Amino acid sequence: MRLEELGEFGLIKQIAALIGEPSSAVRVGIGDDAAVLKLAGDGHLLVTTDVFVEDVHFRRQWLTPAQIGARAAGAALSDIAAMGGEPIAIFVSAGWPPSLEAETATELMAGLARVAGEYGTALAGGDTAASPGGIFIDVVVIGTAGQPWLRSTVQPGDVLLISGSLGEAAAALALLQDGKVANAAALSPALQERFTNPIPRLSVAKALAEGGAVTAAIDISDGLVQDAGHLAESSRVAITIEADRVPISPRCRPAAQQLGADPLQWALTSGEEYELLLTVAPALVQQAAELVADKGGITLTPIGRVSEGEGVVVVDESGEPLELSTEGWNHFSPSPPTHCL
Ligand code: ADP
Ligand code: MG
């Protein structure tokens, strides 16, 4: 079977099946935003790795080297936020075409290091190789968490919450893909900032980690509906998303109008938003939202509910299921939907 038939998640399932019982040090292995390793005492170590491949995750015509590095760091750090953790160190293994200007490599790494520093962590090592094709960068982030948030612990009855708002990254990408703008520098300042400097929601994680209100979490890197699907599958529950409650950024609307696109479809399927999708018991929703607003200045919006069952359904205001134009991101898919290519 070809990978394009098996799909990204089919391959990951086959890899997971190759692995026997994990060692007792591995509390969570394949299947969450980061692996959770048990430390002596109460703490947990988090490890996440994300690979960024030229012309799959980024295009050099669209982004400066520093922007490519900053995006990679932000996206990788987002997985630590999704675990309710704090980053402690970053390692980067990279492949570079030998003909590449050395400055391109150092500028990319400087962009990555800048973002690492902004979130209180630093580059602590990596590996360097020649690449026969384009640039690739693998970013490993090590973090810690007292009680890591998992994908597998959603409870029926929980409320589904999303941080911030969705659609700006999708709008930026759609404008670039459509040729409406030649590169990220030509985007409006708001879209440019969101696209070139994705914010890992570590402040949300920090504000909520101590309270214990969060029952489960994931970050939006494949699209809201698909990422909700990962929560539902891991936790064996059903999730209903109420479309009219999904916070769509007003800043993506002019681009949607210009392109004749539906901002709701962007919000439901865009894979580069890096907001956190959390579940919380109903009684704790208000307290969680207030904590995040007070400590991080970010909104947490209830967008759905969890029940017994399986799968994700998106409903309109009258409760009718909505059709989606695409599901979300899947590597190897013959016609990839919204992503950076
Ligand atoms: P995320 O979008 O949060 O980075 P992914 O969808 O990339 O998560 O990965 C889902 C899970 O599958 C993670 O636990 C990841 O570690 C695991 N995974 C992905 N690719 C591989 C691989 N080649 N080998 C082992 N585990 C993998
Ligand atoms: Mg993730």
Overview of the molecule:
- The chain is 34% helix and 23% strand.
- The strands form two sheets. The protein has a six-stranded mixed sheet with strand order 1-2-3-6-4-5. A six-stranded mixed sheet has the order 8-10-7-11-9-12, with helices on both faces.
- It is of the alpha+beta class and 341 residues long.
- It starts with a helix and ends in a 26-residue tail after the last strand.
- α3 (102-118) links the parallel β4 (86-96) and β5.
- α4 (168-177) crosses α5 and α4 (168-177) runs parallel beside α8.
- The protein folds into two domains: 3-145, PurM-like, N-terminal domain (60s Ribosomal Protein L30, Chain: A); 159-315, Alpha-Beta Complex (Phosphoribosyl-aminoimidazole Synthetase, Chain A, domain 2).
- Bound molecules: adenosine-5'-diphosphate (ADP) and magnesium ion.
- Residues 12, 15, 30-33, 50, 79, 221 line the site of adenosine-5'-diphosphate.
